[in-house]
Design goal:
By secondary structure, the protein is of the alpha+beta class. The protein has helices spanning 12-17, 32-39, 87-100, 128-150, and strands spanning 5-10, 18-28, 43-44, 49-53, 56-60, 63-64, 81-84, 103-112, 115-125. It is built from four helices and nine strands.
Length: 151
């Protein structure tokens, strides 16, 4: 793990439901109470996804809990948030979505040098038998680790 990085939330569901590739670190446009809430580890990426609209990228469904001391200036927890990407990156992602049937999912949110960053990835949906295979491999790894530990 790199220095200065504090992971706030990760999307374990995405690793189970999708084949992930082309990971990319992006910035998020946040309000004041949102960043304070993130520093208290109050975020969830479970049902979040990314859309591209009008040459801008947005994350939808990312839940950042309201800040306890936020009073009237508090934010809406599930609001749509703009992602900070270069135009070339947006064009590249948009082409992959349209041509190859990918979707974009956030995999983790973290603080890097005091700034909130979101890791996104191109995702291709897994079929039921793919999920079974990954469960079987995970179970075998657990069994091997258990045996090695007792040996």
């Amino acid at each position: 793990m790199e220095q200065g990085i504090k992971i706030i939330a990760s999307n374990k569901k995405a690793h189970y439901n999708y084949f992930l590739s082309d990971f990319l670190e992006v910035g998020i446009e946040l309000k004041g109470t949102e960043i304070k809430s993130l520093k208290n580890h109050s975020a969830s990426l479970d049902d979040a996804y990314v859309i591209i609209k009008g040459m801008e990228a947005y994350v939808i469904g990312m839940n950042i809990a309201p800040y306890k001391q936020g009073n009237i200036f508090n934010h809406e927890p599930l609001r749509t948030r703009k992602l900070l990407l270069h135009k070339k990156e947006i064009i590249k992602l948009n082409q992959k979505i349209k041509e190859q049937g990918f979707t974009i999912v956030p995999t983790k949110i973290y603080l890097s040098k005091g700034r909130a960053k979101l890791e996104i990835a191109l995702a291709k949906g897994k079929k039921l038998y793919d999920k079974r295979d990954s469960e079987k491999a995970k179970e075998q790894k657990r069994e091997i680790d258990k045996r090695l530990k007792s040996y």
